[in-house]
């Protein structure tokens, strides 16, 4: 997921609520994926309390609960996840499902050693699956969108020529930084497809600059509108 996620182990003495601050499962639950919150209610005491304490009875008791709560995750069809990233969710969920089953089997056999061994992998798979549902962090693109929206939603409707000139120059600088920056880790596998899309945005910015220098507001509006459309599409497909 993204960029991606580093799992942090906090001190055992820290409260569970504090230890969970900012984890992918919590973020996914806060974004509306409630099944991850339900699963997390079982995972948190098992991982942060029972596992460090080697409380095998509690770890084994969690097995059937994991199996039951995973059903909702197995049925998820997160349409709001971008089409490019959806296969990652499906692949990671399958790995998660396999570990849930292995863990449940070990619990049914009261195999304390295997249950204890599987818990870290199960926890990692849970968090990694949740991470695939979260937006990709792409600060350079976020910065670009701030200026695009300022131009399209404010300067053009307000006929703020001075603002258009300043923001278009800023847009060029941000676009240069975006082109030069490395892609987020979560997008690296699709670099061959994404680089041309970013280059197209760069060409639109250059057309906007040319139209601005030629005082051709009609052409400027055409290219600015197309830039906004393609930038929004890039976000939907990839972030």
Structure description:
The chain has 239 residues and is mainly alpha-helical. It folds into 2 domains: 21-131, Up-down Bundle (Four Helix Bundle (Hemerythrin (Met), subunit A)); 139-238, Four Helix Bundle (Hemerythrin (Met), subunit A) (Up-down Bundle). 74% of the residues lie in helices and 0% in strands. The chain has helices at residues 16-19, 24-30, 34-53, 56-74, 86-108, 112-131, 139-158, 161-180, 191-213, 217-238. α2 crosses α6 and α7 (139-158) runs antiparallel to α10 (217-238). Residues 1-21 have low confidence and may be disordered.
- CATH fold topology of the largest domain: Four Helix Bundle (Hemerythrin (Met), subunit A)
- N-to-C series of helices and strands: HHHHHHHHHH
| Global morphology | elongated
- CATH class category name of the largest domain: Mainly Alpha
Helical fraction equals over 70%
Please compute the radius of gyration using only Cα atoms.
23 Å
Number of helices: 10
Write the layout of secondary structure elements.
Blueprint: H1 16-19, H2 24-30, H3 34-53, H4 56-74, H5 86-108, H6 112-131, H7 139-158, H8 161-180, H9 191-213, H10 217-238
Helix pairs in contact: 2-3, 2-6, 3-4, 3-6, 4-5, 4-6, 5-6, 7-8, 7-10, 8-9, 9-10
Name the features.
239 residues, mainly alpha, Four Helix Bundle (Hemerythrin (Met), subunit A), 2 domains
Q: Quick gist of this model?
A:
The chain is mainly α. 74% of the residues lie in helices and 0% in strands.
